[in-house]
Amino acid sequence: MQALLALEPQRQSVDTLQAEIRRVCGLFTIEPRPGDGGALTGGVATGRIDRFESAVVAVDGERIARDKRLVAEDPGQHLFLVLQRSGRCRMEQQGVSTPMRPGDLYLADSAFPSVFHYDGAPSRQISLHLPREEMIHRFGRSCTGGVAIDRDDPLRLAIHAVLVRAMMPGTAPPPLGEALLGLFGAYFHDRERQEAASERAANAVLSRALALIDRCGLDPRFGPADLARALDISERTLQRHFQALGETPGRRILHMRLDHARARIEAERRAGQPINIADIAFSSAFGDLSHFYRAFRSRFGVAPGALTRPVALSSNRLDA
């Protein structure tokens, strides 16, 4: 373990260092700094923490990447607990970019493409290689896909301390692998609890928003700003809640009004009553008939008059 921490990076070819990283961590490609040609300074050393393989990777290059092709060629079997020992890095996985400073921890998932951006600055990282299927069995899917361990979470400090203790030179440390897994279990249990609470709160806000639209949507003065005020949240927060439905609050209100207008037209047609498109539009919170006609055709693919009987269409037709 002492040799692991005492790793001295050497100037070497990109191909040599890439082959060593692939031997230890799986298929990755290395990109050197611009102007460095086919060489860079770096090194890899390996060891074990209890039954888990570990490694130190030092690199002074641009980035190390694992794209979709490499994932398909070398399906991921591990989650890599990465400790930023020195230098800086920007970890990218699943479309999320996470800056890493010394002491930061990230759980990288080898089953997904990933990029370690070094931007030409020297970096040294310790990684602990955890069997992916076992971790899923222990902690559930919340540990997959790339997880930045919250820097302010007290459990991060404990995980960091155990990991560093396990890699200290000198006398053999007590078995610490299970201690790490126990801390991970506590971390992901707490994370799932927080996410579930957050999801329940978000669903409650969205449910209240939809009920308010049903109750107030036919008031022509009612809009997204009024809805946000009634919920005591900002309009931006309101927009985020509606992303779960794939629409905006304004679009939801508009569709509610159009659905109301169509239901009125169809109900009066079935009852054989005269249909006045203008009255229906105004009662559905549309103050502008031309806007009503355009929105109705956009949503339903036909003009309002197409849903009336021919006699109603000819006697009640309004010019847009």
UniProtKB/TrEMBL annotation:
The keyword S-adenosyl-L-methionine does not apply. The keyword DNA-binding applies. SUPFAM superfamilies: Homeodomain-like (SSF46689). Keywords: DNA-binding, Transcription, Transcription regulation. GO terms for molecular function: DNA-binding transcription factor activity; sequence-specific DNA binding. InterPro entries: AraC-bd_2, AraC_XylS_family_regulators, Homeodomain-like_sf, HTH_AraC. Residues 207-310 form the HTH araC/xylS-type domain. It comes from the Bacteria. This is HTH araC/xylS-type domain-containing protein. It comes from Aureimonas ureilytica.
